[in-house]
């Protein structure tokens, strides 16, 4: 037995509701099951329950065993003083309030259908599972229900990202421009160099970026230098030497400290994603646009955002991927696919978080933008597609990733609309 199953049973009334009795044989009549609480405190708020003819209004707490009340030290927590009913799977000891009156206990195991318990066990049985628990039944879920669940999951993912964004906002003393800079740099680094680029962004005083926005060579030199990409004394390339000299000058001028910076890597990266190319593109973004934050966060359409990202790496990189080694000529501009990743992972989350922090609602606008972008391609998306759940756009692909990470992978099937709907079919 799992506690989340007890929550599910109580929330959706999947139990016998007549002829209920407490462990002391007092008749129980449930007038209102209450509101499910997923935060700290009792599991269900504002329930109304008639016990032995007396109507009580208060909260309901649920456990596998009655003794869990003491194991969790609820007797010492003021949040639990208004518990009117303790609902358990198995009663193993009476529990008492501070005034020594016994809290009524309802033992559920005799009031639940064995079919429901068996269906729950099958749902969580991983013996024949390849990808997710409900893979054999998910294609039977009502499409309208699924679409609504995906929209909720997308906002849930935005909320989760908002927590990370607000942490950076606090660290930067409410400098939203620095917040965007940190997150852009992190996502320019992708999975392999994301942490490295993020460490550079955090270590670099953004006032220096503002001061150098008229000189791309200087801004590049700062980024390359902090990344440790200007440390090779054997390279005699003129551009490299100019960057290295500029960095030494600026490092002394602004007292730049490289402590804690993670050096970026090249291994397993396609050349267009080399840190040299991506850092140059960031430098050119910030020298092309002096007000990157206001342009990106104030954009009302995807096209406006695309126009801001119409930048390339510096001319030197037209025939280089690394310093001192020439390659076939090609302009290293940002591709639409890469810009889409930046929009999905940086611009829309920051736009949503900034608006919420400012007391505004841009939910519909963000939804519209996310729905206009192509879905991502990865193993999680491919796994769901094989099961018949085929995301149509980035909103749905982000939602599916959220579902997989926060529900499927953690066996939280009963907190998932899909898992709940499958169990609710059981008579």
UniProtKB/TrEMBL annotation:
Pfam families: DUF2851. InterPro entries: DUF2851. It comes from the Bacteria. This is DUF2851 domain-containing protein. It comes from Saonia flava.
């Amino acid at each position: 037995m799992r506690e989340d199953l007890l929550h599910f049973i109580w929330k959706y009334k999947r139990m016998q509701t007549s002829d209920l009795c407490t462990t002391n044989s007092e008749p129980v009549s449930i007038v209102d099951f209450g509101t499910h609480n997923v935060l700290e405190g009792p599991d269900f708020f504002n329930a109304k329950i008639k016990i032995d003819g007396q109507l009580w209004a208060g909260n309901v707490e649920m456990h596998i065993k009655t003794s869990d009340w003491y194991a969790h030290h609820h007797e010492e927590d003021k949040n639990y003083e208004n518990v009117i009913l303790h609902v358990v799977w198995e009663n193993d000891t009476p529990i008492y309030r501070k005034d020594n009156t016994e809290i009524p206990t309802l033992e559920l195991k005799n009031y639940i259908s064995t079919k429901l318990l068996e269906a729950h066990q099958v749902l969580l049985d991983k013996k024949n599972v390849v990808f997710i628990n409900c893979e054999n039944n998910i294609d039977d879920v009502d499409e309208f229900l699924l679409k609504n669940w995906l929209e909720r999951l997308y906002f849930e993912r935005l909320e989760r990202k908002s927590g990370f964004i607000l942490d950076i906002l606090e660290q930067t003393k409410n400098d939203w421009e620095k917040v965007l800079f940190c997150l852009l740099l992190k996502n320019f680094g992708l999975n392999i160099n994301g942490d490295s680029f993020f460490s550079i962004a955090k270590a670099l005083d953004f006032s220096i970026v503002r001061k150098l926005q008229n000189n791309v060579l200087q801004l590049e030199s700062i980024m390359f230098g902090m990344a440790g990409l200007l440390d090779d004394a054997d390279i005699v390339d003129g551009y490299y030497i100019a960057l290295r000299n500029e960095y030494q000058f600026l490092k002394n001028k602004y007292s730049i400290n490289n402590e804690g910076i993670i050096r970026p890597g090249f291994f397993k990266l396609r050349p267009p994603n080399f840190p040299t190319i991506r850092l140059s593109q960031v430098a050119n973004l910030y020298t092309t646009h002096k007000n990157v934050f206001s342009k990106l966060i104030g954009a009302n359409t995807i096209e406006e955002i695309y126009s801001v990202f119409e930048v390339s790496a510096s001319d030197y990189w037209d025939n280089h991927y690394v310093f001192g080694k020439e390659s076939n000529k090609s302009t290293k501009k940002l591709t639409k696919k890469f810009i889409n990743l930046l929009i999905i992972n940086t611009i829309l989350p920051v736009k949503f978080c900034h608006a919420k922090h400012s007391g505004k609602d841009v939910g519909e606008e963000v939804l519209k933008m996310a729905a206009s972008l192509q879905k991502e391609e990865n193993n999680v998306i491919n796994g769901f597609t094989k099961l018949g759940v085929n995301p149509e756009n980035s909103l749905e692909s982000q939602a599916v990733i959220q579902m997989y990470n926060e529900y499927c992978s953690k066996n939280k099937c009963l907190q998932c609309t899909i898992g709940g709907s499958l169990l609710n079919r059981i008579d």
